[in-house]
Amino acid sequence: MIVTTDLHHSCTNAHTGTSASAPLAAGIVALTLEANPKLTWRDMQHIVVRTARPLNLRAGDWVTNGIGKKVSHSFGFGLMDAGAMVRLASNWTTVPEQRKCVVFYPARYKLLQLYTDGCSSYSRNKVGYLEHVQAIITLTAPKRGDIQIYLTSPSGTRSTLLAKRARDTSRTGFREWAFMTTHNWGEIAVGLWTLEINNDGWDDAELIRWDLVLYGTATEVSNIGGTPSASSSSLTPRSLSSKVRTRYGALWEDTSAAFRKTAAKFGRNLPQAVIFGCGSYEKFKKK
Fold first, then answer.
1. I want to staple 244 with a disulfide (CB 3.0 to 4.6 A). Which of 71, 98, 123, 252 is the partner?
2. pLDDT tens digit string along 266-283?
3. What is the rounded CA–CA span in Å between residue 61 and residue 39?
């Protein structure tokens, strides 16, 4: 929840949902792009994952993936850290080209496990380190909402691709439906992948086909991209030690104190996760 303006010239401390998160995320991305306008969409995703902070976010599904990053189906990799993203972007080196490795599931087999070498036999398709992972699934079901699908990586990270949905009464099943997860970001692609399908319905469902699609890089990005500052890995809020000049001359600065004053009006402190790393522009004067 965030503090923001409300109806009738008042404020609220209970604004939440995508109406709050989408514009905040867009603003942070804009600041990051001003610090480095050469960033690609994949660069931005790498920066978000590497600087995200799982701070004060309560959920029962937090796990640690194969590269030691905490990840949740409710909160992803955590809160976006605007200050850390701007600093990391200013020294970022563009990530290598994205590669795609497709592992086909032979229809004659019913075992739901696939071993992949990350397409190492094909140099142009070799995926050593993961970004996005897709399971392309075709199945039939008397009630589609009863189907739950999970994918476990060679590193042991279990992703929920599809949760149970009581109101999904469709009988059409899924035809070459692409389910995606980013919870394996940075993990090694090579190894045994396991697809798990649970059917809580009254009749049988049939898996007809599934293919595994791996997107990522041949080399490890942590050795190529920018290097986060030592403080960005800490889970304690802090003020920016210095101002960062963005593309158009505006200065990024910490304004967390202003948010604390706003929170005081409501008679309680806001979660540190909300006030961390807020920023503002100084008025930009044309030369």
1. 252
2. 333 333 333 233 333 333
3. 31
